[in-house]
Amino acid sequence: MNKVKSHIPAEESWRNVYFLGIGGIGMSALARMLKAQGVNVSGYDRTESKLTQELISQGIPVHYEENTRLIPSALDLAVYTPAIPKNNKEFVHLSASDIPLMKRAELLGFLTRDKRLIAVAGTHGKTSISCWIAHVLNQGSNKCNALLGGISKNLGSNLVFAPETDLFVTEADEYDRSFLQLGPWIAVITSTDADHLDIYGDHQHLKNSFRSFTSKIKPNGKLLIKKGIELFTEVNESVSVYSYSLSEKADFHAININVKSGINKFDLVTPFREVKGLQSGIPGIINLENAVAASAVAILTNADEETVKTGLSSFKGVKRRFDIRIERDNFIFIDDYAHHPNEITACIDSVRKLYPEKKITGVFQPHLYTRTRDFAGEFAQSLKALDIIILLDIYPARELPIEGVSSENLLKMIDHQHKYLCAKEDLISFLKVIKPEILLTIGAGDIDRLVEPIETTFKAIHS
Length: 463
What we know:
By secondary structure, the chain is an alpha/beta fold. Helices cover 31% and strands 24% of the residues.
């Protein structure tokens, strides 16, 4: 086994830092932050992407060849993502060297150890909520830094850099128990649905990890947890615990909800006062619940009502999170990162409520062989809610194929009259033939690379 060193030099001494897997959404945010702090940053990734192109344009060298000779010679620190295979030549080289080497989550914990950290955890919802919190806080006097798990459409980035404040917003990723590296001032738990069973083995071990996460909240901190989550917590006795919900009675919940033309208007009940006249800047019932959570966190940081109102109404959303790309009378295109059955159900339900008279064509790319195997029945059930189902091949990410696990077999499990298996390279041609009213692309793999070509094609068709 490769030995990963834990003796990390003081942050002030970092001059040259190398990222192995720099194109990942979390890794690129960290790379951007260190670059903003004056550190020389470079990295490797397996494939070129829009993110790596942006990093290069910002003065961060990136290469795509697994080649140890391309690693800078004078490094103070190397950082790697768990998605990097342990037999990667550069990882093997760095592990055998004297260069300090740490996981992405360890670096995040290191950088935020002395900060007032707002950490958003959950098997889904954390990206939208953390981006929304960061946006709201930066409309007021508090300001905050943020390392985000998605590209904020307001910022065009996954980084907010505000060196004048110690307030910090980030996602707390449960994968590989990464969030146990963090010490939050405010922790949010949005969901604890079964996921990552390749890591945890069963649902109970996953929930035990969230329980351990609550023990990391600093004394006099705060925990905001979605009402209905059954989770024993291990918070310090000085930690204040609050619940939130869409409309069910909780410490923070919405009342007087009025949805018109896709715009959510509501009043917010809090333990302290009622905040009236709030409006979500993005549509969808799922986003209304996210707005409640973001508002709650802002209020718990003592943000004033005007800051909350401005931040909610001006938020444009996150790329690939219920991302409406085209909205015309005869054609609607929405892209979403949903990759868990419950996320898919919530996404389709939100689309149905927005456009009840239109038929939905969904293109789903399953993410990981293990997740497809573990939730095949649930995927089959959630996808049935579509009018037309199109499956792409499984995106393997870090995994090798598993016998008997395929999109073809998943398709057979779906009891539906209009279901198809399609190769990525044939998708646009196929969509032209079936002429969808609403097109929904769903998945966490490289389906995102099809979004712009689809958008360009159908904007031309429906111009």
